[in-house]
Amino acid sequence: MTSGRAAFAIEVTDPQPGCSVLVVGADTAADAFAVRVGPGGVIRTSDSLSDATGVSDLVCVFGMPEFRGRDVSRLACIPDLLGPAGELWVFDSPGHGESTGPLSMQISTTLSRAGLAIVDILEGRCMEGRCVIALCAMVKG
Predict the structure, then answer these.
(1) Is the separation of the CB atoms in 77 and 50 below 8 Å?
(2) Are the C-beta atoms of 17 and 55 separated by less than 8 Å?
(3) CB 20, CB 41: distance < 8 Å
(4) pLDDT digits (tens, 9 = 90+) for 82-132
(5) How far apart are CA 92 and CA 37, in angstroms?
(6) What whole-number distance in Å separates Cα of residue 140 and Cα of residue 1?
(7) CA distance 58 to 16
């Protein structure tokens, strides 16, 4: 992940000092989040959702194929990773020659099927010839 994508993630998630953040799939974003949450915050990283542990205020997932498919069983761990009022943010980019709309719809449909409530969908900066989308979801209830 480029520093521009990390900056976009920081901008849209707006992590507050002292919060806990789990970064999945992009260790390079962890440093940017650590600066923002400060010494009182907690930053954890994981290569995949299945390996992620602990409860966080903010879970940021970058380019994970689990959110593009119909099998939501691999997303069952998400409620266990989110603290009260915790937010899941999914960041992804369409392939070359593809538009952001279908990918946003695909990911939001997958999140809904997994029992999550969609809070926001943002289509962000186009960098290096690719646009980044960001979807925010929370556990229903």
Answers:
(1) yes
(2) no
(3) yes
(4) 999 999 999 998 887 788 889 999 999 999 999 999 999 998 766 666 788
(5) 23
(6) 30
(7) 10
